[in-house]
TrEMBL record:
<dbReference type="Pfam" id="PF03147">
    <property type="entry name" value="FDX-ACB"/>
</dbReference>
<feature type="domain" description="B5">
    <location>
        <begin position="402"/>
        <end position="477"/>
    </location>
</feature>
<feature type="binding site">
    <location>
        <position position="465"/>
    </location>
    <ligand>
        <name>Mg(2+)</name>
    </ligand>
</feature>
<dbReference type="InterPro" id="IPR009061">
    <property type="entry name" value="DNA-bd_dom_put_sf"/>
</dbReference>
<dbReference type="InterPro" id="IPR005146">
    <property type="entry name" value="B3/B4_tRNA-bd"/>
</dbReference>
<keyword id="KW-0648">Protein biosynthesis</keyword>
<dbReference type="InterPro" id="IPR045060">
    <property type="entry name" value="Phe-tRNA-ligase_IIc_bsu"/>
</dbReference>
<keyword id="KW-0479">Metal-binding</keyword>
<dbReference type="InterPro" id="IPR002547">
    <property type="entry name" value="tRNA-bd_dom"/>
</dbReference>
<dbReference type="InterPro" id="IPR005147">
    <property type="entry name" value="tRNA_synthase_B5-dom"/>
</dbReference>
<dbReference type="InterPro" id="IPR036690">
    <property type="entry name" value="Fdx_antiC-bd_sf"/>
</dbReference>
<dbReference type="Pfam" id="PF03483">
    <property type="entry name" value="B3_4"/>
</dbReference>
<keyword id="KW-0030">Aminoacyl-tRNA synthetase</keyword>
<keyword id="KW-0820">tRNA-binding</keyword>
<dbReference type="InterPro" id="IPR020825">
    <property type="entry name" value="Phe-tRNA_synthase-like_B3/B4"/>
</dbReference>
<feature type="domain" description="TRNA-binding">
    <location>
        <begin position="39"/>
        <end position="149"/>
    </location>
</feature>
<feature type="binding site">
    <location>
        <position position="455"/>
    </location>
    <ligand>
        <name>Mg(2+)</name>
    </ligand>
</feature>
């Protein structure tokens, strides 16, 4: 629901600024999505009168006009609009005026003719999107010389409210004003709506065949309307500020009443109605061409408005094209109805439609509003289009109207739920301002919900109303009391459970091994390890505390291989123990082991075995979970249990926190293993560290990518090369990707070709080739000086 702030303030105007008003509405449970100005900034535009117009001597599509802008002397203006005419009142930008887009009006010559100003279109003033075909013509009563912006009241804001489905009563200015009034304890005063007396006795018969779905249907015949009349500019503007396009005065008035009061309405061309209106379910095989031109086949569960020839409209959704008002229409049949929410719910979506009417009827429209809306629309029609109204035809099934709902509210329950005692006078004032009838009882109050509040059914509904109007921020804050103190836990910390799920998702199974291992196995894997020896071990092969998770994982691997399990994926989280008892460090670690085929056995799976890079990828998936992958590094290292050429230290923010590598061939031979295995072990305190994500806006400008193939010595770590590139690539580098490493024909012996993709993107403009070329030159120069790298030809 989008509405004009000025329109709302005609009903109720609290002493609040625009943003404060929007905040108040949001805090009351009606979330404000956006607050926007109704027009772009411009100045120097006044109302002028076109007093003369002649053809431009040298241009067929231009006119030379004389305009009176109230300054006392007519001004000559060259205008290209096809609809400019003598006698019109128009918005006129004087010399020196500034239009939207910082467009300044200056004296000019157009095809040799002086032009001192500009007659403006709606799009040039920022009042509509796209390009207008002609100038904006103002009403004849517009005062010449007055500031156009002030006269149009364009210093206004539109407020867009995102309503929950239970608050359909706020889909109107009247409903929103009621909320603002009760929040500020102010009276709400809308326009006076007087009964429009009939000036003729003609009626059009109405029959409601399905009163359960349509308990109330009201119609009125209005004769002699002028559909060609012009919708007043004030109404067009209010519709525009609610994102509704002006069509013709009859449609505009029905839309205006819907926005003002919340009652959807429809006007039929009486000349296309036959015998009588019937509100019924559609029949098998019936079709209807809607106002948007599409033809649909009606289902037999769809409520329709029909005459004796067939359907005229889908009830509560959209009218038909054949019976709609057009320029030839002289007599109209105005309808206003109450359709039950269940009768309309889902009907629009099943036909691929969504209309303002269906949006309201699905949420519930006040059944007491139908007649009031007819009177309001009739008054506006008589004033704008003329016409003679007939008597109001009211077909109501009182047995099917929603019954009055009475809810008991206990004072003790209210105090218990809110944690504060509200005075009886406050409770009654809030509920009465919300339109409820309140009767005091021994235990509290008996409340009758108003007809427009379909969401008030139980005691908790009333408590919610009192809480939000009293103010959620005014309710006391109470912390729960408990004997156990809660330990603080940073939001950036990654729970171990997530890591367990991640490893399981990548095909690993969790192992839980003893903290005691064989001293021989630990000595084979880590000869220099120091850990406590048990005084009374369970057995001799479980006599020392583990200094690493590797012994337990390798023991589990042996167990599985001895039972013909050739593909093993295991991980474990637990403590390792380093040092003697008087200086013991208990370090939580997470380790993993993988061996065997890369993919499970299957007809489509290859026979490649898992390697270092497969397990490194699994570890990197854990590192990425913290949102700080750039803080992690892998560097070549030497570990007694791991292959010298396939081992890396794992660094976090420069500190060594783990190892990854392939099991050392000598260790594998000593243990009698016939397959390679890849292992890693990382400290949990580093793994669980993370970085809170922060929003970075997406750039709307194109990326620029350059691919470089650099020849470097084969023993140069690629990470060093990547670090150098990041240093030289500048702040706009968004991605650096290694996509190929090649040795062979065309590459000198002892060298390798490293292919890198660099992507740049600027947040606020398009990068040009000169800037990128300078960065690439700097990269080539620096890598050449530092590593002896050169571009591969």
């Amino acid at each position: 629901m989008k509405f004009s702030e000025q329109w709302l303030r005609e009903w109720v105007s609290p002493q609040l600024a625009t943003q404060a008003l929007a905040d108040q509405i949001t805090m009351a449970g009606l979330e404000v999505d956006a607050v926007e100005a109704v027009a772009e900034n411009f100045e120097g535009v006044v109302i002028a009168h076109v007093i003369d117009k002649v053809q431009h001597p040298d241009a067929d599509k231009l006119s030379v006009c004389q305009v009176d802008d109230g300054s006392g002397e007519p001004l000559q203006v060259v205008c290209g609009a096809p609809n400019v005419a003598v006698g019109q009142k128009v918005p006129f930008a004087r010399v020196g005026a500034v239009l939207p887009g910082d467009f300044k009006i200056k004296k000019a010559k157009l095809r040799g003719v002086d032009s001192r100003g500009m007659i403006c279109s709606a799009s040039e003033l920022g009042l509509e999107e796209g390009h207008s075909a002609g100038i904006l013509v103002l009403p004849a009563l517009a005062p010449v010389g007055e500031d156009f912006r002030a006269w149009m009241e364009l210093d206004d804001s539109t407020i867009e409210v995102d309503l929950t489905p239970n608050r359909g009563d706020c889909l109107s200015i009247k409903g929103l004003a009621r909320e603002v009034g009760v929040l500020n304890r102010l009276a709400v005063e809308g326009p006076a709506i007087e009964t429009q007396e009939a000036t003729h006795d003609e009626r059009f018969p109405i029959h409601v065949s399905d009163p359960e779905r349509c308990p109330r249907y009201i119609g009125r015949l209005i004769k002699g309307v002028n559909v060609g009349a012009e919708t007043p500019l004030w109404m067009v503007e209010r519709l525009r500020r609610s994102s509704i396009r002006s069509i013709d005065p009859v449609v505009d008035i029905t839309n205006y009443v819907m926005l003002e009061l919340g009652q959807p309405m429809h006007a039929f061309d009486l000349g296309n109605l036959h015998e009588a209106i019937d509100v019924r379910l559609a029949r098998e095989g019936e079709r209807l061409v809607l106002l948007d031109g599409q033809e649909i086949a009606l289902r037999d569960d769809t409520l329709v408005i029909a005459d004796h020839r067939g359907p005229l409209a889908i009830a509560g959704v959209m009218g038909g094209e054949h019976s709609g008002v057009n320029l030839e229409t002289r007599d109209i049949f105005l309808e206003s109805a109450f359709f039950t929410p269940l009768a309309v719910a889902g009907q629009a979506r099943t036909y691929g439609l969504h209309t303002d009417a269906s949006h309201r009827f699905e949420r519930g429209v006040d059944p007491e509003l139908t007649r009031l809306a007819v009177e309001r629309a009739t008054a506006l029609l008589r004033k704008i289009t003329g016409g003679e109204p007939g008597p109001v035809i009211d077909v109501t099934s009182h047995d099917h109207l929603p019954p009055a709902r009475h809810v008991e509210l206990r004072a003790a329950r209210l105090e218990q739920a809110l944690g504060v005692t509200l005075a009886s006078e406050t409770v009654e004032d809030i509920l009465q301002r919300l339109g409820m009838v309140v009767h005091e009882t021994a235990e509290g109050w008996r409340v009758e919900a108003p007809s427009w509040r379909f969401d008030i059914d139980i005691e908790e509904d009333l408590i919610e109303e009192l809480a939000r109007i009293h103010g959620y921020n005014r309710l006391p804050v109470r912390r729960p009391q408990a004997r156990l103190a809660l330990r603080p836990d940073g939001e950036s910390r990654q729970p171990l459970s997530r890591m367990r799920h991640q490893m399981a998702a990548r095909g690993y199974q969790e192992a839980i091994s003893y903290s005691f291992v064989s001293p021989e196995l630990q000595r084979t894997l880590m000869p220099q390890a120091v850990s406590p020896r048990l005084a009374n071990p369970i057995s001799s092969d479980m006599s020392v505390m583990r200094a690493s998770l590797f012994p337990g994982l390798i023991k589990a691997l042996e167990y599985n291989l001895n039972r013909q399990q050739s593909r093993v994926r295991l991980f474990e989280a637990g403590l390792v123990f380093r040092g003697e008892l008087d200086d013991l460090a208990q370090i939580p670690m997470l380790g993993a082991l993988a061996c065997g085929p890369r993919e499970p056995e299957g007809w489509g799976a290859g026979r490649e075995t898992v390697d270092f890079y497969d397990v490194k990828g699994d570890l990197e998936s854990l590192l990425a979970m913290g949102g700080d992958a750039a803080a992690w590094r892998f560097e070549p290292g030497q570990h007694s249990a791991l292959h010298p050429g396939q081992t890396a230290r794992v660094l976090y923010r420069g500190d060594e926190v783990g190892w990854i590598g392939t099991l050392h061939p000598a260790v594998r031979a000593e243990l009698g293993l016939k397959v390679d295995a890849v292992l890693f072990e990382v400290r949990l305190d580093a793994l669980t560290q993370g970085r809170l994500p922060s929003f970075v806006p997406l750039s709307r400008f194109p990326e620029v990518r350059r691919d470089l193939a650099l020849l470097v010595e084969e023993d140069l770590p690629v990470q060093s090369l990547l670090d150098c590139l990041r240093e030289q690539a500048g702040e706009w580098l968004t991605e650096l990707r290694l996509f190929d490493v090649y040795q062979g024909k065309g590459v000198p012996e002892g060298y390798k070709s490293v292919a890198l993709g660099l992507t740049w993107q600027h947040p606020s403009r398009t990068l040009n080739d000169d800037e990128i070329n300078r960065l690439v030159d700097a990269i080539v120069t620096e890598t050449g000086q530092r590593f002896g790298a050169r571009l591969r030809s």
